[in-house]
Amino acid sequence: MEIPIWRDPEGNVVSCVEKIKVMQENLEELRQMAQDAFEDALLMGCDEGQVREFLLQMMQSLENPYHS
């Protein structure tokens, strides 16, 4: 999966190399953890579609603690 060009709420490109590096590392770690959980669920006999749907719902339920 290709990582997008990150933008701030006003649409400006986030260009700080360190911020982009941290974001990339976090997303790679998250993807690997999700992949591991997905594979474990399949090995335990869980329905693939249900696991995928749950993972999607989990991501969609994340809360922004920085709302103004």
Overview of the molecule:
There is one protein chain. The protein has 68 residues and is mostly helical. Helices cover 59% and strands 0% of the residues. The protein has two helices and no strands. It has helices at residues 17-43, 48-60. The longest helix has 27 residues, at 17-43.
Task: Offer a quick outline of the entry.
This protein is an all-alpha fold. The chain has a domain of 42 residues.
* Distance between the first and last residues' Cα: 31 Å
- Pairing-aware structural class of the strands and helices? mainly alpha
Please bin the fraction of helical residues: 55-70%
Radius of gyration: 15 Å
Strand percentage lies at: under 5%
Q: What is the H/E order?
A: HH
Q: Low-confidence spans: pLDDT under 50, at least 5 residues?
A: none
What does the largest sheet look like?
none
The quaternary structure here is single chain
Count of individual beta strands: 0
Mean pLDDT: 94
Topology:
Elements: H1 17-43, H2 48-60
Helix pairs in contact: 1-2
Sum up the structure in keywords.
68 residues, mainly alpha, elongated
